[in-house]
Amino acid sequence: MEINLFDDNAWLSLKPLTFTRPVADLRIGILTIAEKWAKYLDATNFGYQTAPYLSTKYPSISAQLSINGSICPDKQLIEAVFLLKDGECLIQDSLIIAFKSHLPLLWNEVNEKLKNVAYPKEVVQIKYPENIFSYNHVELVKDFELLTKGKTSAKLSNTNVFLGDDIFVEEGATAECSTFNSLQGPIYLGKNSQVWEGSNIRGSFALCNDSQIKMGAKIYGKTTIGPFSRVGGEINNSVIWGYSSKGHDGYLGNAVLGQWCNIGADSNNSNLKNNYAEVRLWDYEKETFRKTGLQFCGLIMADHAKCAINTMFNTGTVAGVSANIFSAGFPRNFIPDFAWGGAHGFDVYTLEKMLQTAEKVFERRNMKLDDKEAAILSHVFDITQKYRHF
């Protein structure tokens, strides 16, 4: 089976996280949404129907089955998708979940051309950035079962302490002199991951392949550390997608970090307002702050964003793509894409300087910043200019 995962209006409401990727490339739980669907459906290949400027890196493929990239699958939903016939569309109210057609249709054309099939059960849809950490425990539990079913866990050193036995260790993962508490949720250690001495980890938790937890870290539940990342300090109910670092002391809570982010030493984010009021987040489309309905909401940081040592983030801060934050005091709650500065004010982080830095960041990982990635960042720089009122 081959599938395309399409972006609907959730791609707009998930900015700035989706400025640099389709919705289905978001990580929640252990896997990206696209990887979940491919695993459940045993798909041999998958593609994306997304914004034209992203299509060079995330191309579509020729496939009859199209899936809404903002929806996370489960067993019941998979059964309904398998039952779809050519010319049918699976919907819930006005939400298009999936459709099957030999015709090359876009998602907003299917209501007029295909037969609607109602889906009566609840679905997990990722529509806003805060949904990622809010639903992370639910998705982590599902992914844990999906990835470990029928497999045997590798063993960890007997220098560790285990509370509960709901832990799965992939080949090459190591840990020494650390505590793993899986009584509240499963713990997953990916291939070649490392947990350094003195770390305390409480499930639900996932450490993806080739990532490290530094000595003495305190990791609370509902947290995912994506591949090729390094973290330390205190982390709670947060999702880091991959190739990012929070390697030092400091608090990160109810937060989402994209790829190629770096958090400086002793940086902290607030996740609860002093008056315990509802947290609001910046909305790119409305160009104002949106109510989240949450009392706990910390930092949303897009790809390539970075902060210096001792940076302090207010409750409900959004940092855009390639934002570079430094200096004393609390910066504003919305830090535009390609902003350079802090509480004292911001200047434009020029595209030329940003790409020079990105090249060096990639080189440290023995990777190359290719033309496709540079073109996406150039496009994001252009389309976000209106938010930089410096």
Quaternary structure state of the chains depicted: single chain
Cα(first) to Cα(last) distance is 50 Å
Output mean pLDDT.
96
State the helical fraction: 10-25%
How many E-type strands?
Answer: 35
| Poorly predicted segments | none
Which term fits the overall shape?
globular
Which structural class matches the secondary elements? alpha/beta
Biggest sheet descriptor:
13 strands, parallel
Number of helices: 8
The percent range for strand residues is 25-35%
Radius of gyration: 21 Å
Overview of the molecule:
By secondary structure, this protein is an alpha/beta fold. It has eight helices and 35 strands. Strands 9, 10, 12, 13, 15, 16, 18, 19, 21, 23, 28, 31 and 33 form a 13-stranded parallel β-sheet that branches. The longest helix is centred in the last third of the chain and has 14 residues, at 351-364.
Could you provide a short overview of the structure?
The chain has 390 residues and is α/β, with parallel strands linked by helices. It starts with a strand and ends in a 7-residue tail after the last helix.
Topology of helices and strands:
Blueprint: E1 2-6, H1 10-13, H2 33-41, E2 45-49, E3 65-68, E4 71-72, H3 75-82, E5 88-92, E6 95-100, H4 110-113, E7 115-118, E8 124-125, H5 130-134, H6 136-148, E9 161-163, E10 167-169, E11 174-175, E12 179-181, E13 187-189, E14 194-195, E15 200-202, E16 205-207, E17 212-213, E18 218-219, E19 223-225, E20 230-231, E21 234-242, E22 245-246, E23 251-259, E24 262-263, E25 268-269, E26 279-283, E27 288-294, E28 299-301, E29 306-307, E30 312-313, E31 317-319, E32 324-325, E33 334-335, E34 339-342, E35 345-348, H7 351-364, H8 371-383
